[in-house]
Amino acid sequence: MRAVPAAATYPVQVADWVRISWLATAGGTLVLATATFASVRSANRAARVAEESLLAATRPLLMPSRTEDPPIRVGFGDDHFVLTPGEAAPPKSPTPRST
After folding, report:
1. Local confidence pLDDT in tens for the 99 residues of the chain
2. H or E stretch including 46?
3. Assuming Cys at both sites, which of 24, 28, 71, 80 could form a disulfide with 76, CB separation 3.0 to 4.6 Å?
């Protein structure tokens, strides 16, 4: 009987699964970190806009509408009113009244 060497050598290349799994984990972590960074940045931008609108005492009103919706009279904080059609927004902002 022949003795089997401790470290057998293979005539063909064998995949190094430890290295492959390590690289896959590293790549997945990098993708997740990038997505988290983009999400936090977007949330910070939205929070900044909301804070500015609160400080300016304006509240944006966004809602879905259909062509069958009736016109709505929209009032602003400085006593301006605009009649908006059901399917669209007013074409321009109201002109300020002189007091």
Report:
1. 566 566 666 677 777 889 999 999 999 999 999 999 999 988 888 888 888 877 777 665 666 777 788 887 877 777 778 887 777 766 565 555 554
2. helix 17-55
3. 80
In a domain, 8, yes or no: no
Residues facing residue 73 across a β-bridge: 83
Domain of 95, in residue numbers: 62-99
Return the closest-CA partner of residue 84 out of 75, 22, 11: 75
Same domain, 50 and 77: no
- β-pair partners for 75: 81
Three-state DSSP state, 44: helix
Q: Using the CB atoms, write b or e for 56-67: b if 16+ within 10 Å.
A: eeeeeeeeeeee
What's the DSSP call for residue 11? S
For strand 81-84 and strand 72-75, is the pairing parallel, antiparallel, or unpaired? antiparallel
